[in-house]
Design a protein that fits this description.
Beta-Lactamase, alpha+beta, 9 helices, Arc Repressor Mutant, subunit A, 8 strands, 19% strand, DNA-binding, homodimer, two-stranded antiparallel sheet
Chain lengths: 259, 259
DNA sequence: ACCAATGGTTCATTTAATGAACCGACGAGT
DNA sequence: ACTCGTCGGTTCATTAAATGAACCATTGGT
C-alpha cells in the first residue's frame, strides 16, 4: 500500500460515532506506527482535509472536503438531483426515503427525505454505513453488482444486527436471484427492528449499479395498500433518478413500465 | 513536500470550469512527472477520491468526498446551520445571500440562498473561488484574519476583475481599517459588474475568522432603504451564525446589538 | 508524588517514490 | 496510407522520502 493510500485510509476511521479522533486512538485503529500517523495527519491537516481542535488536539475532518463535495456535485449532481426525487417519493408514500451510494466496497446512506404525514418516522443519517445483507438497499445493490463483488461480500463473516437478520449466504443468494427477477428488494426488520423497507437499484451510464433508492416504514404501517403503493412509487422513482443522472438500467433489469 | 501533499494538491486543479482533467493536462498543470501523477491518481482512485470516466479516461472527483463531507457536517454542521440563516437573510432582504469559508489561503463560496421576491438575482455557485480584494466577503475575512495572512495576500499580484476593482494594497489596507471599525464590508462592482454586496465575518470558538456571510444585490436595486436594511439584517445574521456554530466574535468586534 | 496516559520529536535504517525513456493506440492532416 | 503528435500507461535504475524504536514534555487521575 502506497503512502497516499495509507494517509487516506486514516480518514476511513471517522464516522458518525467517531467524529473526532486523537493521535493515539488513530494509531491503535490503523495499526501503524505513531510517528507515521502523526506525519500523515500533519500532511492531511496542511491540505485542509483534517483539522485539530484547539481543546484536546483531536483530529476531525476539515473544511476542504466541503469544497471537493461541492465540486463533485457540480460534475455529477447525484445528490442534488436525488433530493427532488426523494422529496416526491416521501410525499407519495408518506414514509422516509433515502439514497445510498456504493463507495468502494462500502454502502453509505447519503441523502434522505421525510414525509410530514406521520409523526412516527424511520430516521436516517447521512454517511451512515449500511450492511449489504439485512438491508433492502444493500440487497438491491448486491443483486446487480459484479458477481465477484457479491461473492466477496458474502464470503465475509455476516453479523446479525437483529434477530431477523438473514446471515446464511445460501439463503441470501436465493434472495438475490429473486430480486433480479422482480427488480426490487424487500427487508423486514433485518437492520433495525420493526422497520419494513423496499429498495431499487440505481444505475450509471455504463449500466453499472451505483447505489439504491429505498423507502423505509414502520412495520406497523405496512398495510396491504402500502405494500402495493410503495414498490410502484419506488420503481418509478428509481427509473427517474437513473435517467436524470444520465444512467441506464442493464438489459436484464425488469421493466414493468409502459415507457 | 511529502507524497501525500503532492497527491492532494492534484485535487486542487479541479474547479467549476474544469470538472474533468486528463492525465496529460494534470501533468502539465501540476508540473510533476507524468508517471508520478499517474501513480498518485491511481492511489486516489483506489480510495474513491477520484474516478475515471469510461469515455475518455479523464479524472473527476469521486464519490468518497461526499461521504467525508457528510461526516464533516455531522461534526461541524456549518453548512446545514447556514442554510436556515441564509434563507432567512434572503427572505428579509429580498436578495441573494451566501456563505464563504476560508480553506487554507483560499476563500470558497459554499452555500447560498435566493429570494423569490425579484426576478433578477445575483447568481451564486457553490465551491466558487472568491478573491480577497474586490469582494465584500474577502475583505471582511481579511479584516479579521491574522495580520501576517492579510499581508501575504496583499503582497501577491492583485488582478482586476472589473474596472472598479481596487488593486492598490495601500487603499485596501485603509479599507480594512474601516471594516474593523464598522464590522461590515461593502463592495460595489469589484468582482462582478453592477453587483453591490455587503459582508460580515463569521468566527469560530477560538474567535478566529473562518469565513463571511454576504448579501449581493444588483446595484440598481440598492435604494437608500436597502442600504439601511441589508447591513442591519446581515449583522444580525452573522451574529446568529457565529453563535449557532459555537463561535464567538473577538473582543474588538463592534457590537451594535443590545444583546 | 506517582503512574499511565497523551501529543510530539529524533535519527539511523529501510522502503517506496521518482523520472527519463519507452510502448501501443488513437486521430488529424496531408 | 502514411506520417506526426498526443494520448494513457509502463519500465527500472536512481534517489529521496517514509519508517519505527526510543525518547521527551505535559497532562490528568489516584
Amino acid at each position: 500500500m502506497g503512502t497516499v493510500s495509507k494517509a487516506l485510509s486514516l480518514l476511513t476511521f471517522f464516522n458518525h460515532g467517531r467524529t473526532g479522533i486523537g493521535l493515539s486512538d488513530l494509531t491503535r485503529l490503523s495499526g501503524m506506527n505513531k510517528a507515521t500517523v502523526y506525519r500523515l495527519m500533519n500532511e492531511l491537516q496542511e491540505s485542509g482535509f483534517v483539522e485539530q481542535t484547539g481543546s484536546d488536539r483531536s483530529y476531525r475532518l476539515g473544511p476542504q472536503v466541503l469544497r471537493l463535495a461541492a465540486l463533485r456535485e457540480a460534475a455529477v449532481p447525484i445528490l442534488s438531483v436525488s433530493r427532488q426525487v426523494l422529496r416526491d417519493l416521501s410525499d407519495e408514500t408518506g414514509e422516509t426515503s433515502h439514497l445510498s451510494l456504493l463507495q468502494g466496497s462500502q454502502l453509505n446512506s447519503l441523502s434522505h427525505a421525510y414525509s410530514p404525514r406521520n409523526a412516527t418516522r424511520v430516521m436516517m443519517e447521512d454517511a451512515k454505513v449500511l450492511t449489504f445483507h439485512g438491508t433492502s438497499s444493500g440487497m438491491a445493490v448486491l443483486a446487480y453488482a459484479e458477481p465477484d463483488f457479491a461473492e466477496t461480500i458474502l464470503s465475509q463473516p455476516l453479523g446479525a444486527r437483529t434477530p431477523e437478520t438473514i446471515t446464511d449466504p445460501q439463503k441470501i443468494r436465493a434472495q438475490l436471484a429473486g430480486i433480479r427477477k422482480s427488480g426490487i428488494a424487500v427487508s423486514v426488520g433485518g437492520f433495525e427492528e420493526d422497520v419494513h423497507s423496499h429498495a431499487v437499484p440505481v444505475f450509471d451510464p455504463d449500466r453499472k449499479v451505483i447505489g439504491a433508492l429505498a423507502v423505509a416504514a414502520p412495520a406497523s404501517r405496512m398495510t396491504a395498500e402500502q405494500k402495493q403503493l410503495i414498490p410502484a412509487a419506488l420503481r418509478r422513482a428509481g427509473a427517474t433518478l437513473t435517467h436524470r443522472i444520465g444512467g441506464s438500467a442493464p438489459a436484464d433489469y425488469p421493466q414493468d413500465e409502459t415507457a
